[in-house]
């Protein structure tokens, strides 16, 4: 297990360099005039141009120059320096403000998915082909079929504006209550998937041979379901939720945009829209690390839950 | 089926320890109703071993699951019949009473121990679970008893292996764990459903010997379900041969091996490879087992039977009692037996 984790950490180092390189290249390589691209549509004075050329080592050209700048960027990154955005703000500071909001939003979404999705999934799996099972199927298909870009404004309009059950937007430093509606919208997709997954897993495990054995031992039905079936059924569900938490932590561009939540996705979207290259690359680099770590945690958790998985 | 002379070891009422009477089970599926068990009757007395023999799909496992009350309903439904345990019909009992019987009176072991054991719990925990839940033992007592049971089924280093998971055992050792679990509550009847089918040949013999020894030591009765005639000979007292959800021949082991009285049994025996006859092609029973949604008219075996006559197509053969207390559901039982003796 220890060796497995060590190997995975080494793989993560490779994955980190690979992904940051790609993101860096996608953003900065192949630009005719990097300085003009950095500045966007605004005019650049000769003094600014000279300053930026020196700051970003733009006097080195070609592939060699690109890698020179990339390694320069990575060197700063490893020292915890994410650089500055085009607006002159420290990207580390931006993330420090944005992340707690996104984490709270992610936890609300995950809680919604677990409380409603997993519970309903277990019930639907036990009562297969019942009215409850069929109605959850229809509802989840509906939710999975509506993109967030439609669902979020609809929820905002009806629940926030028309019936005024929730605040329609969150604004800076949002309260738990203000994040509740966006959290539910964000969580509904995870909820639907968690429900389908749990239902399928429970239904499959109920038919497993070991359930027949448990019955032949004369155990009561409740114990068979809660101890034997659930323990096995929830392995894939926990794995899914772990990966999902990683996704949610990296911010939700649409939901945060619609509800005006100053989270990671919101800032990333702003960076993309204003062609703020350093901001985009800075945020994505950190997201890569979040992703890699959360995936490692899920893999280790998987081995803990399922003794058959032994990472040598 | 005829009732054999009652041995001395019967229950107080003078009946059998376990008796099935005219059991019918069907599977109701979307494609139609499959009649899986069509009037099975057999009995088991204390301390004896009955082998139930037949091809896949002949209904031997379904019969066993009906006895245990662990059929998946739906699709399986017991349509009619009786399952008498110590004279009481289990089928009329409420579920709670049937649950009490499972494991404590009648226990069962399954074919594939890897899938029959729960993969995420240690074996000791799984053996102990029965003791904790059914016998109210404490955690420590259950653990101690689990080690004893693992010793009883001859798992080397039982105390060390109690925390291991099923996938860490070999096939034979896993089946021993399964047996230890079934023996936890000292059952009177042990149903072994193809206990050696998933194992290597060398291990098969060890497990069969173990089962025979344990049956004797613990004075249990055993129903041994198998499709392997080779497994049966040394262990069983009587054999019931099943075909298409029915018992087609029922006799003691010696007479069945000497002179089968049903063409199906005869076919099964002839398909065993023999070391003393070299260079000869193995004989097989031609055709396939019938589709249980459309069981052939008359004798269900007639499309595959070498003795087939018009009467077999037209008339359903009832159990024919032969002189020596055996039965055969064949219109030509006498002829088949005499033919077998002659060869």
TrEMBL record, chain A:
Please give the CDD domains that the UniProt record associates with this protein: TM_PBP2
Q: Which domain of life is it from?
A: Bacteria
- Keyword check for Acetylation: no
What is the first-listed, main subcellular location in coarse terms? membrane
Residue ranges constituting the ABC transmembrane type-1 domain according to the UniProt record:
99-302
KW Membrane (keyword) present: yes
Q: Which InterPro entries match?
A: MetI-like, MetI-like_sf
Q: What does the UniProt entry say about where the protein is found?
A: Cell membrane
Which key words tag this protein in UniProt?
Cell membrane, Membrane, Transmembrane, Transmembrane helix, Transport
Q: Which BP terms from GO are recorded?
A: transmembrane transport
TM spans (from-to): 12-30, 105-126, 138-159, 179-197, 224-243, 249-269, 281-305
> How does the protein associate with the membrane?
Multi-pass membrane protein
**Matching PROSITE patterns, A to Z?**
ABC_TM1
Pfam family, any one:
BPD_transp_1
Query: What's the family?
Result: Belongs to the binding-protein-dependent transport system permease family.
* Stated name of the protein: ABC transporter permease
Top-level taxonomy: Bacteria, Bacillati, Actinomycetota, Actinomycetes, Micromonosporales
From TrEMBL, chain B:
Q: Where is the signal peptide?
A: none
Recorded hits in PANTHER family, A to Z, give:
DIPEPTIDE TRANSPORT ATP-BINDING PROTEIN DPPD, OLIGOPEPTIDE TRANSPORT ATP-BINDING PROTEIN APPD
Biological processes per GO annotation: peptide transport
Q: What is this protein called?
A: Methionine ABC transporter ATP-binding protein
Q: Which Pfam families match?
A: ABC_tran, oligo_HPY
Answer yes or no on keyword Transport: yes
Domain ABC transporter, by residue range, is 18-269
Which family would the database say this protein is a member of?
Belongs to the ABC transporter superfamily.
- Biological classification of the source: Bacteria, Bacillati, Actinomycetota, Actinomycetes, Micromonosporales
Keywords (A to Z) from UniProt = ATP-binding, Cell membrane, Membrane, Nucleotide-binding, Transport
Record InterPro entries: AAA+_ATPase, ABC_Ni/Peptide_Import, ABC_transporter-like_ATP-bd, ABC_transporter-like_CS, Oligopep_ABC_C, P-loop_NTPase
Topology relative to the membrane, per the entry? Answer: Peripheral membrane protein
| GO MF | ATP binding; ATP hydrolysis activity
Taking the first listed entry, what is the main subcellular location of this protein, grouped into a coarse class? Answer: membrane
Q: Where in the cell is it found?
A: Cell membrane
**What SUPFAM superfamilies does the annotation carry?**
P-loop containing nucleoside triphosphate hydrolases
Species of origin reads Micromonospora inaquosa
Organism superkingdom: Bacteria
Q: A Gene Ontology CC term for this entry?
A: plasma membrane
């Amino acid at each position: 297990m220890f060796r497995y984790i060590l190997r995975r950490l080494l793989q993560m180092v490779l994955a980190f360099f690979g992904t940051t390189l790609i993101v860096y290249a996608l953003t900065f390589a192949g630009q005719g005039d990097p300085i003009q691209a950095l500045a966007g549509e605004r005019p650049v004075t000769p003094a600014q141009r000279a300053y930026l050329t020196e700051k970003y080592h733009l006097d080195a050209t070609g592939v060699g120059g690109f890698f020179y700048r990339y390694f320069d960027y990575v060197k700063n990154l490893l020292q915890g320096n994410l650089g500055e955005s085009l607006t002159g703000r420290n990207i580390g500071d931006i993330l420090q403000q944005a992340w707690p909001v996104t984490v709270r939003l992610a936890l609300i979404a995950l809680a919604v998915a677990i409380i409603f999705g997993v519970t309903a999934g277990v019930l639907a799996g036990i009562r297969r082909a019942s009215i409850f099972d069929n109605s959850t199927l229809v509802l989840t298909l509906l939710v999975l079929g509506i993109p967030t870009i439609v669902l979020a404004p609809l929820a905002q309009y009806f629940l926030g504006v028309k019936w005024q059950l929730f605040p329609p937007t969150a604004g800076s430093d949002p309260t738990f209550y203000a994040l509740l509606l966006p959290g539910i919208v964000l969580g509904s997709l995870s909820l639907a998937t968690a429900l389908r997954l749990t239902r399928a897993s429970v239904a499959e495990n109920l038919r497993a041979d070991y359930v027949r054995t448990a019955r032949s031992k004369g155990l009561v039905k409740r114990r068979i379901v809660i101890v034997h079936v659930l323990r096995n059924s929830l392995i894939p569900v926990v794995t899914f939720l772990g990966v999902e938490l990683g996704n949610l932590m990296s911010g939700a561009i649409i939901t945060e945009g619609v509800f005006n939540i100053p989270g990671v996705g919101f800032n990333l979207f702003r960076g993309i829209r204003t062609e703020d290259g350093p901001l985009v690359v800075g945020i994505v680099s950190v997201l890569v690390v979040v992703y890699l770590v959360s995936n490692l945690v899920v893999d280790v958790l998987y081995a803990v839950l399922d003794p058959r998985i032994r990472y040598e | 089926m005829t009732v054999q002379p009652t041995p001395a070891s019967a229950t107080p009422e003078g009946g059998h320890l376990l008796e099935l009477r005219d059991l019918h089970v069907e599977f109701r599926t979307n494609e139609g109703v499959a009649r899986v068990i069509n009037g099975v009757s057999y009995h088991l007395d204390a301390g004896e071993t009955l082998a139930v023999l037949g091809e896949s799909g002949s209904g031997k496992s379904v019969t066993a699951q009906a006895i245990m009350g662990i059929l998946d309903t739906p699709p399986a439904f017991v349509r009619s019949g009786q399952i008498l345990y110590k004279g009481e019909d289990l089928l009329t009992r409420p579920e709670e009473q049937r649950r009490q019987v499972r494991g404590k009176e009648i226990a069962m072991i399954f074919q594939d121990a890897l899938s029959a054991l729960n993969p995420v719990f240690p074996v000791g925990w799984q053996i102990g679970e029965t003791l904790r839940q059914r016998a109210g033992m404490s955690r420590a007592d259950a653990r101690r008893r689990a080690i004893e049971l693992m010793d009883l089924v001859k798992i080397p280093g039982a105390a060390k292996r109690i925390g291991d998971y099923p996938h860490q055992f070999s096939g034979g050792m896993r089946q021993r764990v399964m047996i230890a679990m079934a023996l936890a509550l000292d059952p009177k009847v042990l149903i072994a459903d193809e206990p050696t089918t998933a194992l290597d040949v060398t291990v098969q013999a060890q497990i069969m010997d173990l089962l025979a020894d344990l049956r004797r030591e613990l004075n249990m009765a055993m129903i041994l379900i198998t499709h392997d005639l080779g497994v049966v000979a040394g262990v069983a007292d009587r054999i019931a041969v099943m075909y298409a959800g029915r018992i087609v021949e029922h006799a003691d082991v010696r007479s069945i091996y000497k002179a089968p009285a049903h063409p199906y049994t005869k076919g099964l025996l002839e398909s065993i490879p023999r070391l003393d006859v070299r260079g000869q092609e193995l004989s097989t029973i031609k055709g396939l087992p019938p589709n249980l949604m459309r069981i052939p008219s008359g004798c269900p075996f007639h499309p595959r039977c070498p003795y087939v006559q018009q009467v077999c197509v037209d008339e359903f053969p009832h159990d024919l009692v032969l002189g020596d207390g055996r039965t055969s559901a064949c219109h030509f039982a006498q002829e088949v037996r005499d033919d077998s003796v002659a060869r």
